[in-house]
Amino acid sequence: MLGNFTYCNPTKLYFGKDALEGLSEELPKYGKNVLLVYGGGSIKKNGIYEKVIEILKANSKNIYEDAGVMPNPTSDKLAEGVTRAKEANADLILAVGGGSVCDYAKAVSVSVNCNDDPWEKYFIRFEEPSCEIIPVGCVLTMVGTGSEMNGGSVITNRVQKLKIGHVFGEEVFPKFSILNPEFTFTLPKYQMISGIYDIMSHILEQYFSGTDDNTSDYISEGLLRSLIHSTEKALENPSDYEARSNIMWTATWALNTLVAKGKTTDWMVHMLGQSVGAHTDATHGMTLSAVSLPYYRYILPYGLKKFARYAVNVWGVKYEGKTDRQIAEEGLSVMENWMKKTGLVMNITELGATETMLDGMVKSTLIMDGGYKVLSEADVRNILKASY
Ligand code: NZQ
Ligand code: ZN
Question: What are the pLDDT digits (tens) for 335-387?
């Protein structure tokens, strides 16, 4: 573990079939006014809404609602949420849903008392909040983003065609999150596997950086092997509690800042995917799966040793006298077959990307410098072209 870092994760987790009981423990810590934030209605169909309302009432809370948070929440919706939270004089924002709802709740929490335009301040200028922040709690219903235990908040500006994430500090992390794996059973298969690939991508974004011997890499390999194993089980039987609970826990640890420690971290798959998302509004995990292999094949020569290690330790490829290059390429082929078998989207055309969007997508791609190669604009273009 070279370098210096601090580690603190202030989010309290309640995990398991009885996790929702934790809500009753948490609610007394906050004032009367609760802004209940949720998405397009899945929580009403699967009964989670009623359960949450019952607990809020039992705790004598004034309940205000902000519904209709869309996947890939927008800056326009954020403005609406700020108005709702002000009207409610919210003491707590309770997000019930997936990453979009949790991310949105965090964005509202730092924007209610902000005198500036939140999009400009947090997502364009990347400034930190200087105002009072409303506490956020989450009841998670979709697994993948890790938003339940991190400071990430990703907002899309449809006019500017930008989808940008701000990774806020500890003061914006959810105060608590409730993780009941059974709440994820009603997810359609498309969303389940999209979330699974999001988890895989989060781990890989951190793993594919640096050349030192680092404990984080060993943890990442373990998380990846657990994820691959449980995915197979969950595909066979989506109600397999053991598999779904392992996937849920892996998602949280994939992006709660632990495995990033001591790593420069890459994040270019996410930058490419978010650019595709900004132009197509496609499902997050699928934008990542569609660009991953073109990206990894492009940078493989620059991180050869790590790609070879990945092939052996995660995908079980055997050396048997092969070169690092052969091993590394074989690892990516095994990964590709697994992705196809899992049902992931393997190209951006399927997500609605057209040739005419290419220039815009190149422009919307932020370039990060923590991975094995710092891409030029021409590299970004080549990778996106190979993703069609
Ligand atoms: O809106 P409802 O009706 O609730 O339906 C949702 C939505 O359509 C549905 N859903 C959620 N739970 C369900 C369910 N349907 C049936 N049963 C359930 N139990 O699933 C759909 C997708 O939900 P969404 O919240 O959009 O998915 P996800 O959790 O993948 O979140 C995606 C957003 O998170 C951002 C992404 O960019 C995207 O905007 N990310 C956030 C990160 C973070 N905070 O650190 C990091 C990630 O890399 C990611 O960028
Ligand atoms: Zn992601």
Answer: 999 999 999 999 999 999 999 999 999 999 999 999 999 999 999 999 999 99
User: How does pLDDT run across 247-262, given as a tens digit for each residue?
Assistant: 999 999 999 999 999 9
Partners of 38 in the β-ladder: 96
Supply the residue whose CA is at minimum distance from atom 38 of ligand 1.
Answer: 72
Which pLDDT does position 115 carry in this prediction? 95
CA-to-CA distance for 78 and 1, rounded, in angstroms? 39
Give the chain's mean pLDDT.
97
- Count CB atoms within 10 A of the CB of residue 338: 15
Cα(253)–Cα(173) distance, rounded to whole angstroms?
14
Pocket test for ligand 1, best of 100, 163, 248 (most atoms within 8 A of CB): 100
Angle at the Cα of 251 from the Cα atoms of 221 and 241, rounded to 5 degrees: 105
Q: How many CA atoms lie within 13 A of 200 on its CB side?
A: 28
Rounded Cα distance, 152 and 258, in Å: 14
- Burial of 185 per CB tally in 10 Å (0-12, 13-18, 19+): middle
41 lines ligand 1 (CB under 6 A): yes
pLDDT for the residue numbered 359: 98
State phi, psi for 93 to the nearest 5 degrees: -105, 120
* Ligand 1 pocket check for 146: Cβ under 6 Å: yes
Reduced to 3 states (helix: H, G, I; strand: E, B; else coil), residue 240 is: coil
The ligand with the least distance to the CA atom of 72 is 1
Spacing, Cα 142 to ligand 1 middle (Å): 6
Out of 11, 38, 42, 203, mutate this one to test ligand 1's pocket (max ligand atoms within 8 Å of CB): namely 42
pLDDT digits (tens, 9 = 90+) for 54-96: 999 999 999 999 999 999 999 999 999 999 999 999 999 999 9
Q: Report which protein residue has its CA nearest ligand 1's atom 46.
A: 145
Cβ neighbourhood burial of 65 (10 Å; 0-12, 13-18, 19+): middle
Q: Round to whole Å and give the CA distance between 249 and 181.
A: 9
CA 159, chain centre distance (Å)? 23
